[in-house]
Amino acid sequence: MHIAKNLKVMEWLKAEIIERVGGLFKGLFHGNESYIIDSMAGLLIAVYVLARRIGIPFHQIDSAVMEKLHNHQKEGHEIEEWYGDLSILEQYMKKR
After folding, report:
1. Closest Cα partner for 69 from 56, 88, 43?
2. Which residue of 24, 28, 39, 60 is surrounded by the most CB atoms within 10 Å?
């Protein structure tokens, strides 16, 4: 029973991620900031909870994000070169 419930929750979370991405695109299309923020927040929550459901602790996701940000900066990712967004995000995450 527990395994079936966990599988059902994981399927629901995957569907939630897809739904939130769709909501994000709709919000961007319509220029609706509150809808965009709501979709992004829901997307982040679903990703973190799905990670936990498959046995990945939240702190491992955070560490992987920090490592990826660092690597992208070191490799000269275009977003970093053009706007500096990756280093700004890394600084923000370090302060949390």
Report:
1. 88
2. 39
